[in-house]
Write a structure and sequence with these properties.
This protein is of the alpha/beta class and about 325 residues long. It contains eleven helices and twelve strands.
Amino acid sequence: MANYESLRLEKGMYGAPGKSFTRVLEELDPSEHYAGTPLAGLDAYQRQLKRFDIRVSGADSDRLEKFFQTGDSTALFPEYVSRAVRQGMEQANLLPSLVATTTNISSMDYRTITSNPGEEEKSLRPVAEGAQIPQTVVKTQDHLVQLHKRGRMLVASYEALRFQKLDLFTVTLRQIGAYIARSQLSDAVEVLLNGDDGKTPAQTVAAAGAKPVYGDLVNLWGSLAPYRMNTLVASTAATKDILSIAEFRDAAAGLNFQGTGRLVTPLGANLLHVPELAAGKIIGLDSACALEMVQAGGVATDYDRLIDRQLERASISVIAGFAKIFEGAVSVLSYAG
């Protein structure tokens, strides 16, 4: 049995190359050793919170100063901040509905692969005996994926926060995570519209009038063939325009939206409300093969400052970028708006 109560914690555990703080703890105190015990289901970090009796959520959550009762417990604070920010990112995150795959890298330079098959390559015709099998060309991009650092700076003194409940402070940190998630979503939408090099815009379908009608969405659906339009991305105004189309105002769709707040699924596609998208555009895509997310690590906190209680200048950031995989898997419906 691993002795989680005797582990020596220090800030150097945050600097292990390619490893998170929790990963380092898990290597020292593996969770599988606790199977069948009252601690089963807790990861190595949660066991450390239990060790120092730190409650980070609920009505009985502790004050922030509880983290700084000993040198060992102080080392847990940056990971608490990172986890709370990640929770906020996950709660506000629409990227799983857009991204086909996520690539984690350990450098700032990354070239993705792409494929842009023509009509002949998309149709698998019978191959005569001795004839050459049609090819699908997959190549490395001639440019690097642009990675953006998104984050926030904590602006508050330790003296101002030390007596605050951790549950309340967690709400603030989650909101920071929500801001980061929305910024990353804007980056993803920009790549869908203009390509990861900013020079290869998605194919455009022009609407018949100033407002989209059912036939326009059908044309958008058809422009993606043979890809499957399973996701629509629309701004606030465009979402309202879609919800106002007569074909999507049937009793069942209206009851679902009014009762649950879940948007209708036009032509079977998942409708995502993205306020940052420009008005007059609706993006249709096959989320299974359109977009790749590239991450250079996870949530990064200025652990030195956090451990030293210098919260007023502690940064929280994430580095990520996006790249198109199949060019034809994205199409844009454009209208006057």
